[in-house]
Amino acid sequence: MSDVTWWRADVHDLHRLSDRVSTLYVERTHIDRDENAVVLVNKERTVRVPAAMVAVVLLGPGTRITHSAVNLLADSGTAICWVGEHGVRCYATGLGTSRGTKLLLRQAYLVTRPIERVAVARRMYASRFPDEDVSALTMQQLRGREGARVRKIYREHSARTGVPWGRREYRPGEPFAAGDDVNRLLSAAHSCLYGLCHAAIVGIGANPGLGFVHAGGALSFVMDIADLYKAEYSIPLAFDLAAAGHVEERDVRLAFRDKLVDGRLLHRVLNDVRDLLGADEGELTEDDTNSLWDGDTSAVPGGINWGEWSADSVPGQHQVVSGPRLEGDEG
Hints:
This protein is α/β, with parallel strands linked by helices and 331 residues long. It has two domains: 11-93, CATH 3.100.10.20; 102-284, CRISPR-associated endonuclease Cas1, C-terminal domain (Four Helix Bundle (Hemerythrin (Met), subunit A), Up-down Bundle). The protein has helices at residues 67-75, 102-111, 114-126, 139-161, 181-203, 220-226, 234-244, 249-259, 264-276, and strands spanning 21-26, 30-34, 37-41, 46-50, 54-59, 64-65, 79-83, 90-93, 291-293, 299-301. It has a four-stranded mixed β-sheet with strand order 1-5-7-8. The protein has a four-stranded mixed β-sheet with strand order 4-3-2-6. Strand 3 and strand 4 form a beta hairpin. The longest helix has 23 residues, at 139-161. The protein starts with 20 loop residues before the first strand and ends in a 30-residue tail after the last strand.
């Protein structure tokens, strides 16, 4: 038997992601609830924000949030992400607007079938090579072409800014610990981009670990999606900062934040994830059917104690036979 789902708002009462303010970043602030709004309180001001009009709330350092505020945001379909300063890293996430699993199941279907997986990977690479036909290229050929493209981009930005460039150096898990100034800035800028993509992916109900090009990590799909935007966002930003002598990690976070103030990148991420997985807008906020898997491709309603049904009373082709209660049986 499946219990009734704990949320209360009907999916049709939720605002679509495309109609919401993209992200709300909060740090060093107390967050509480006042009716259908969350209230942000700090030493400088108090702000009321309608909960259902925000796609993702990013909780930065120094943030405190009440149980009632989390309750409201979750019920409003607003994703909550606990992040580093200005969204650089995503530590933990809550639910987004998606109340069902169609998008997740579609992603799992595509990533577990080699032909479909390669097709999605080719679509990802096609966005980087708009003037080329990549439909017949193997994964090895695509990786080689992508490597050459990225090396060319580094050289171009080095020539544009006058920042010397040798090769890419980074230390996994420590984005500001290896290489020269521009390498460390690149690692920090990429981390910012990963945080934003992570928040968007979990916000619409996809899985951050089911990657198509990257594999084997909890953030494989995040890395897949972030790679679509590095040439436009994090790479030029790192070279510009290095040229200006702004080489601290905080410089990267602030500059990246300023590049995202219009919210356009988050909407691009949402649309690109949806398009890559072949989903329409309706599948991002589909009904929670509260069903039980029936052993094949079908499902039966949840919220029912199937042990109380007799074989004659079960609708359709499903049959359940319940024997008599045994002595001492309290169930």
